[in-house]
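Example (one chain per record):
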Amino acid sequence: MNKKISLGLALSLVAIASAITFILTSFFSLQSFNEKVVDVNEKAKKYGSLQTLDSYVRENYYGDIDEEALGNGILKGYVSGLDDEYSHYLTPEEYQSEMSDISGELVGLGLTLTEDESGYIRIVEILQDSPVTDSGLVAGDIITCVDGNDVLVTGFEESVEAMKGQAGTDITITVRRDGIDTDMVFTRRSMEVTTVTSELLSGYVGYIKISSFKKNTPAQFIEALEQLNSNGAKAFIFDVRDNSGGLVAALEECVDPLLPEGVVATAEYRDGRSETLVYSDESELDVPMIVLVNGNTASAGELFAASLKDFGKAELVGEQTFGKGVMQLTTEFEDGSAVVLTVAEYKTAFSDCYNGVGITPDHVIEADEDGSSDPQYDKALELISQKIAENS
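Predicted structure:
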């Protein structure tokens, strides 16, 4: 038996349903509105405080204000306030310098530098075929002045930045050795940075060291891999000790010929999205492999090691890695400045994210403190030789 309702009752039910819908919609709209109001008020407080501080400084500061430096400082401070060691704001000049570094092209003198305990600049390494290669400079020399400006007065970072300059321009550096200062003039030029070195060890072991992952790293890596293969390499040792990372795209091109087909690593975003970062095609190198790591192996360097370990392609030898498993996105603004912002975590195909933890090697070997020997390298060579013998 069909039950019927009157037209009046039907209209009443529709009205009630509409009323409930209106009340719920109004409730959530009001809640959203209130959240936005709170957000706007909070932002107003922040920017109001900044305006108050700016007014006070301009009325009372004794010195002159460099408006550009002040603006850059405010923007740097904003990103610094995120309390994320990997996120930072870059001025147009800093951004161009970073892009030049990532490209694998270096403009300057070809020197690897560090801050000496005296506060001056100490030369750590000299790039081959650089403007200073045949100058007599050696690792350990101290740079005290750049273009006549004392490093202690100018500051270490500022002095190092001043040494870069433009290709074709001259620079005078004052070098101190055994207490004697000598002025030397050089012409800056553009140089390709070597990030991959290799050699064929006895027993047909291919050794490849990757110092970082830049745009030109894949070409150098593939060339080294093919050269060692053509020379009869039966196994490989990949050394990513002190490799602090670089471009994930460059890493992908390097691991692709080593791994079987499949997703190697993904990016996990805050909103739950997952995106494939590294993918390998079906071609793979099927020989024994060892990867050398240490506490300075980070980011893409760690991802290289983790990828080969995850797919069962290599054992790791050395020390616990650094533990940087987060990804940064660099965004350029209209004025040429940029922000480098942490946007996601890395996740390898078969293991958890190593951020803040690092990767434990299969064979934990501590480095020699005085540097007179390399027990990690020796262990890797021992293991890979055993694997070659087992496969013979």
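Caption: The chain has a mean pLDDT of 87.
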